[in-house]
Amino acid sequence: MRILTRLLAICLIAGLTSCKDKDAKPREDQTLFLRHKGADMPIWVKGNSQAKKIVLFVHGGPGDCAMCYRYYLKDLEEDVMMAYWDQRVAGASSGKVDPATLRYGQFGEDMQLVIRLLKKQYPDTEVYLLAHSFGVELAWQYLTTGNNQQQVAGAMMVNGMYSYYHWLYQVREWALKQAKEKGNTQAEDFLTANPVTPQNTQTVDWEGIYRWMHKLDGNPVSLYSDKKYVINYAFGSPNTALAQFTHSKAYGYYGDIESKTFEKGDLLKNVTVPIGLFWGAKDGIVPVEIGRQSRTLLTNSQVTWTTFEESWHEPFITQTADFGNAVRAFVK
To answer: Where is the AB hydrolase-1 domain (predicted)?
Structure first.
């Protein structure tokens, strides 16, 4: 009797496993590498291959990491393939990279090659961009260069700028408003004494403005407050903390010179692919007004606007489910 019972149990388990495998969505789990101009850049592709859609996550920073944020984006893999790309001198990328390559033009060229590699590996698959913060700058760089936009089906821009001048102007306006509301006279005096104009963009004390924005709760959310995230970051991510916190040293020229030249406002009218603008309404790092201005400039694109009312700079952290649903809606 015991033998018969065991045999029945084994048959039942086998049957359930067979049904589960039959209903399961085809999964992709592959690591690609782009080697270009001294940089070895990994691209982790994970998720539902049946959908024939790839969402390329373009992380922020500069010098951040892609797989760190899979913790918040992983549920999307049930519906699409997610491609997590670590940019040159970022995340788990390696190689001997000349800091002189850390320029918008080079990042745009890298993205072009990443997308070409994805399309070669997964023919007949649509590619969408999901860019955050600094990644939005890279996405605008890519989309406004040559015929690059013909290679993607659409792009989602999350709390990122199109113009250094307009960005810094709005950060200062946001901080000044907060200083007045909070009765912080020290912040108000500093911000009043440091207006941002087209003429002084290169010389104004942007770091002072930026520091006050943070002190006035421009982005009070800390990734490291979530213990599960920290554990995942330490043990479930290919990125290493040692690399993460030394990458920024390579970006001196970017912060001092390159970023201050960024201006794509006049070129946004040339973008014709669908654009999703996703914004944390409380953000002080890239205030929501930058998103509204971007929407106005995209005169020849079908634009989807989504505001996350309870979020700051990273809505995928503070409103994870809502963010995922917004991505799914855009891609579908």
So the answer is: 54-318
Which residue bears the tokens 């080697």?
A: 35
Question: Which pLDDT band holds residue 240 (cuts at 50, 70, 90)?
Answer: low
What value does the mean pLDDT take over residues 119-134?
A: 97
Q: Could you report how far apart the first and last alpha carbons of the chain are, in Å?
A: 54
Which tokens sit at 286?
């890239």
Report the alpha-carbon distance of residue 39 to residue 42 in Å, rounded.
Answer: 10
- Residues of the chain by 3-state class (helix, strand, coil), percent to 5: 50, 20, 30
Query: What amino acid is encoded at 215 in this protein?
Result: K
Residues 237, 125 share a domain: yes
CB distance 157 to 139 below 8 Å: yes
pLDDT per residue over 272-293, tens digit each? 999 999 999 999 999 999 999 9
Backbone angles phi, psi at 245, to 5 degrees: -95, 5
Report the C-alpha gap between 60 and 137 in whole angstroms: 9
Q: How does strand 275-280 pair with strand 39-48?
A: unpaired
Can you tell me the mean pLDDT for 219-238? Answer: 87
Q: Tell me: cis bond preceding 62? Omega within 30 of 0 counts.
A: yes
Question: Tokens 């409380």 correspond to what residue?
Answer: 282
3-state secondary structure of 39: strand
Domain that holds residue 90: 25-163+221-331
pTM of the model: 0.91
Same domain, 96 and 212: no
Phi, psi dihedral angles at 282 (to 5 degrees): -90, 0
DSSP character for 332? Answer: -
CB atoms inside a 10 Å sphere around CB 267: 15
Q: Which residues pair with 29 in a beta bridge?
A: 46
**In a shared domain, residues 282 and 301:** yes
Number of neighbours of residue 210 by Cβ within 10 angstroms: 17
